[in-house]
């Protein structure tokens, strides 16, 4: 390996169930957690459904969805599927890993053993700060009890949005509503799409990839607020407005995000953004002759209704899982 090819190789593993911002933030933190003058290479190992069911309980998202969601994270260089629940030195050695990173919350297997004991004993374990405010357990609670209070304050999410934006290369602008103005250095060829982006899953990652490819340039993504999502879908979104924005900013196919985006943007907004193409997968737009409206096929997307159906189909298993997690 030449000097130019050398990397500090970081390993993170886990369930990465329901693709929420705490998972993505762990990956983001790993970029700068280990002091190194070399570029950092992030490898993420993801457990199979069978491993999770054995050690934790049923996953909310299936393994293929979980593999593909984390593969769409802009800070991930490599994904390894179906890794052991207990991190083995033989596994990380296979990928030339220097350090294993995990949050500062304890992780035990079905027998009560520390999942990172081998990496710790080898002096190859580094902890990052666990991101508060969300977990797969809390999302299952939202599905089971949709009327319970959720977010107490938006400020931590806004701070995290700024950190996500600044950790992207180049930075991902996060703007707001009808008065959104992109920075001068933003690429001139611009496409736009918008939607709810709730229950962010592999279908959303693929949809964003298709939209960016069809648009032929940088992709600006508008995210509807909670009231608009409820108006369109008939129920509260699983993820709050800023939680959905965080899912977009971490996605490698997104170049800018606009909060509180209108369901049908005005021509003046599209013009002020310098958009040449609007990419749709269901919504319709009135556009002048200078703006092309392109349609892409929409892959299957996760929804609150589908996740609720899955939880209720295995209700006892999910309730047992929640009890073990102290929910």
From TrEMBL:
Origin: domain of life: Eukaryota
Keyword Nucleotide-binding annotated: no
EC number: 2.7.7.14
GO BP, sorted A to Z: phosphatidylethanolamine biosynthetic process
CDD domains, per the entry: CCT
Transmembrane annotation, as ranges: none
Domain Cytidyltransferase-like as annotated: residue spans: 12-142, 192-283
InterPro entries, per the entry: CCT, Cyt_trans-like, Ect1/PCYT2, Rossmann-like_a/b/a_fold
Protein name: ethanolamine-phosphate cytidylyltransferase
């Amino acid at each position: 390996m030449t000097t130019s090819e050398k990397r500090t190789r970081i390993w993170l593993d886990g369930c990465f169930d329901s693709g929420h911002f705490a998972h993505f933030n762990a990956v983001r933190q790993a970029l700068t957690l280990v002091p190194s003058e070399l570029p950092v290479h992030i490898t993420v190992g993801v457990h199979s459904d069978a491993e999770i069911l054995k050690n934790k309980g049923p996953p909310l998202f299936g393994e293929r969805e979980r593999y593909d969601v984390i593969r769409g994270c802009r800070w991930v260089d490599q994904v390894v599927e179906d890794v052991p629940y207990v991190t083995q030195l033989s596994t990380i050695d296979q990928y030339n890993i220097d350090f294993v990173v995990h949050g500062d919350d304890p992780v035990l297997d079905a027998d009560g053993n520390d999942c990172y004991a081998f990496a710790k004993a080898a002096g190859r374990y580094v902890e990052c700060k666990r991101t508060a405010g969300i977990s797969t357990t809390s999302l299952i609670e939202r599905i089971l009890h949709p009327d319970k209070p959720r977010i107490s304050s938006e400020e931590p999410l806004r701070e995290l949005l700024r950190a996500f934006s600044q950790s992207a290369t180049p930075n991902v602008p996060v703007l707001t509503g009808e008065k959104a103005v992109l920075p001068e250095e933003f690429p001139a060829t611009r496409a736009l799409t918008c939607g709810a982006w709730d229950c962010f899953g592999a279908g959303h990652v693929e949809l964003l990839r298709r939209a960016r490819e069809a648009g032929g340039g940088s992709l600006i993504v508008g995210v509807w607020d909670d009231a608009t999502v409820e108006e369109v879908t008939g129920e509260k979104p699983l993820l709050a407005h800023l939680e959905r924005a965080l899912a977009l900013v971490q996605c490698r196919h997104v170049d800018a995000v606009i909060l509180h985006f209108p369901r049908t943007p005005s021509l003046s907004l599209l013009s002020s953004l310098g958009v040449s193409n609007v990419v749709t997968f269901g919504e319709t737009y009135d556009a002048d002759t200078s703006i092309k409206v392109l349609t892409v096929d929409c892959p299957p997307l996760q929804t609150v209704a589908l996740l609720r159906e899955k939880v209720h189909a295995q209700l006892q298993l999910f309730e047992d899982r929640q009890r073990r997690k102290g929910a």
